[in-house]
């Protein structure tokens, strides 16, 4: 837990197994979700945050990967502005606003491959300091920090409860649909260096149940690779 946002990040970002040796961009290792994302790219580029929030989690991940740098930048400004409307105390609001201001000042963070550049260490340093302050001075836990800085989902409350949409509870009607296919291998959904799994779980990718890795969409501000799943410690 104390290494939630380690300032020293030396792990190599891995490309997703479904992207290897492919000239075509893949947005999900789930073939049906990937086909859906590809057939709806134009609509996705015009998608509002309220529309994104109604998607299932697999489609949210794929959709975020379709977004260009400007759209991801605006996405995070909208998410943090939305977060500020919750019932935080004054010091908490000041702290979240500091994160918003930093994101607002740095649109280049969301450019392709920025997380693989030397400049990414500045993002890690800022987020480490920001997170440590939240733990030491505001009494926030891993869930609260992760729900703000490592997930695009909407917060239900100041405890860090996230609103998530499962495949069974939502069906998109606005965008073109494709036949859903159940994959035997799940997509990875967390970053093993910077994970936000709950206090009873850890982001791992054990050899007996390896998940499909994605080169972006997890970790700090969803800038890092998805290389694990939340599993009980």
Mean pLDDT: 82
Helix-strand string: HHHHHHHHEEEE
Structural class: mainly alpha
User: What portion of residues is helical?
Assistant: 25-40%
Measured on Cα atoms, how large is the radius of gyration?
17 Å
The main β sheet shows up as:
2 strands, antiparallel
- Describe the global form: globular
**Strand composition percent:** 5-15%
**E-strand count:** 4
Quickly count the domains.
1
**What's the N-to-C terminus distance?**
12 Å
Low-confidence stretches: 1-17, 169-184
What topology, given as strand order, has the largest sheet? 1-4
Count of helical regions: 8
Report on the architecture of this protein:
Helices cover 37% and strands 7% of the residues. It contains 8 helices and 4 strands. With 233 residues, the chain is mainly alpha-helical. Helix 1 packs across helix 4. Strands 1-4 form a two-stranded antiparallel ribbon. A two-stranded antiparallel sheet has the order 2-3. The protein has one domain. The N terminus is likely disordered. Strand 2 and strand 3 form a beta hairpin.
């Amino acid at each position: 837990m104390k290494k939630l946002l380690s300032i020293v990040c030396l792990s190599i970002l891995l490309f997703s197994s479904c992207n290897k040796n492919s000239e075509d961009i893949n947005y999900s290792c789930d073939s049906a979700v990937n086909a859906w994302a590809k057939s709806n790219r134009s609509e996705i580029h015009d998608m509002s945050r309220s529309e994104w929030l109604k998607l299932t989690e697999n489609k949210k991940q794929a959709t975020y990967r379709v977004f260009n740098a400007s759209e991801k930048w605006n996405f995070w400004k909208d998410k943090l502005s939305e977060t500020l409307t919750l019932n935080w105390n004054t010091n908490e609001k000041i702290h979240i606003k500091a994160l918003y201001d930093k994101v607002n000042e740095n649109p280049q963070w969301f450019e392709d491959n920025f997380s693989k550049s030397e400049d990414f260490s500045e993002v890690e340093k800022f987020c480490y300091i920001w997170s440590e302050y939240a733990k030491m001075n505001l009494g926030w836990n891993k869930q609260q920090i992760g729900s703000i800085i490592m997930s695009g989902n909407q917060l239900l409350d100041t405890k860090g409860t996230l609103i998530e949409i499962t495949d069974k509870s939502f069906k998109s009607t606005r965008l073109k649909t494709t036949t859903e296919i159940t994959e035997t291998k799940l997509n990875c959904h967390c970053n093993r260096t910077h994970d936000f799994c709950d206090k009873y779980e850890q982001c791992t990718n054990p050899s007996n149940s390896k998940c499909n890795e994605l080169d972006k969409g997890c970790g700090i501000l969803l800038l890092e690779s998805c290389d694990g799943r939340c599993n009980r410690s």
